Amino acid sequence: MNKTKLAILFGGKSDEYSVSLHSAAAIIKNVPQELFDVTLIGITKDGKWLHFEGNADKVNDDTWHKEKLSPVLLSMDNDFKGFIKLDEENNTFKKIEIDCIFPVLHGRNGEDGTIQGLCQMTGIPFVGCDMTSSAVSMDKEFTHVICEMAGIATAPFMAVVNSSTLNIKKLYDEAYKKLSLPMFIKPANNGSSLGISKIRNYDEFEKGIMEAFEYDHKVIIESMIQGFEIGCAVVGNEELTIGEVDEIDTKNDFFDYVEKYSQHNSKIYCPARISDELKKEAKQVAEKTYRALRCKGLSRVDMFVTPENKIYLNEINTIPGLTDLSRYPSMLKKIGIEYKDLIVKLVDLAMEK
Prior knowledge:
Layout: E1 4-11, H1 17-30, E2 36-43, E3 49-52, H2 56-60, E4 70-74, E5 82-87, E6 92-97, E7 100-104, H3 114-122, H4 131-138, H5 140-149, E8 157-161, H6 168-179, E9 183-187, E10 197-199, H7 202-213, E11 218-223, E12 228-236, E13 240-250, H8 257-262, E14 266-269, H9 276-292, E15 297-305, E16 311-317, H10 327-333, H11 339-352
Parallel strand pairs: 1-2, 1-7
Antiparallel strand pairs: 2-3, 3-4, 4-5, 5-6, 8-11, 9-10, 9-11, 12-13, 12-15, 13-14, 15-16
């Protein structure tokens, strides 16, 4: 049996560079060697694409780029699908043929449609959502608009673009009138809860707006939904598999970036401590969200449950964390899908598109 030539992309020009390394290392360790001929392509923080032939540990601890590596280019030639590896010393090149690309790139430039558009131009199948669904899922304003039109409950919100004429006091008054307190400010295009602030007064609002604008030129202001957060893993193209529902129990104001990767004051329960009826409803919301945004391959849908047991969509992650301990593979493992089988399934779905 011929092995599938699989390229794993990791790193990237993103605030979530380190998260990408941990996810990629887990995939490298779990990929079935008997089924795949793996090529590792690392992208440095400043955007260099390099062919890495070392092990997963060097990816995980970010020492993969410490040695001299050959740069690579992604071929756009219809007659050759793969990477061009450059030997700069001898002024020669080598072709690396690829059947499928697995972009393990979280956040900006990895989850927002940019890398997906590049892959689409090559004609090489790739794991995950296409360019359009990735872009609208990453942008919290577009997610709100599309999902509200699909009849999915979301928090009341407003979107604001940074400009030289922005009056923060006037914006606060408008947000207070429309959304009340407390509220949340979030960069419109960012992941892992980076740049998010809980707002209880004007001083926190002013600080939160300026912090969010450090991550994106557009921010979202949302009403706070009282309750707790749950999540659901979805895998599939037309036919979907929904993982177990999990629950985040945190003592913090919200499940922020530090808590996601330390969990000092938080705990994940999988399955969630909710009724079977509510789990069923959560899975229906997850599927409806996935289909409304035209997702393919994989996504994790995050929701809130209010004290009245009403479910609101929080956000969707089209390339969720994929470490051995991440929520997405854990939710699927609870329904019998092991990590190795998940990798095979995701590549099969990419080749099917």
